[in-house]
UniProtKB/TrEMBL annotation:
Coiled coil stretches, renumbered: none
Source organism of this protein record: Corynebacterium glyciniphilum AJ 3170
Pfam family, one: YlxR
Domain of life of the source: Bacteria
SUPFAM superfamilies: YlxR-like
Stated name of the protein: YlxR domain-containing protein
Chain residue ranges for the region called Disordered: 106-133
UniProt-listed Gene3D superfamilies: YlxR-like (3.30.1230.10)
Length: 133
């Protein structure tokens, strides 16, 4: 029996599963999200889910198709809480804001659900932008 995955090409890079649609895509076509905990000493505090298009933030990542409809499905199914192992009450609005900005930058003429995202930087990460040498 072969260990090869049908349709998988090593040249395509790592494959990830969208938490909303449960479809497998190349990691470059999905948006990575991570949990960010606020509070002192790791104790009780609030948790929010933030986009990580640069794929550099520490922690467990959840991958989602970069569309508003996929986001809504993930929230409805509580997929962020399950994938990131955070409370259901975790604030996911930073992801929604990022997706709306991403959609506005693409233009209003095309449907967001049909486009393959090209994710390079996050509006949230612009403030904390680091230079790689």
């Amino acid at each position: 029996m072969s260990d090869r995955v049908p349709g998988f090409s090593p040249d395509a890079g790592p494959q990830r599963t969208c938490i909303a649609t449960r479809k497998v895509h190349p990691a470059t076509a999905l948006l990575r999200c991570v949990a960010e905990r606020t509070g002192e000493g790791g104790g009780s505090g609030s948790v929010r889910v933030v986009p990580d298009p640069g794929r550099r933030l520490p922690g467990r990542g959840a991958w989602i198709t970069a569309t508003v409809s996929a986001y809504e499905t993930a929230v409805q199914r509580r997929a962020f809480a399950r994938a990131l192992k955070v409370p259901v009450e975790a604030d996911t609005t930073p992801v929604m804001e990022y997706l709306r900005i991403l959609g506005e930058n693409r233009g209003s003429g095309a449907s967001m659900s049909r486009q393959v995202p090209h994710l390079t930087t996050s509006p949230v990460a612009e403030k904390e932008k680091e230079t790689d040498y």
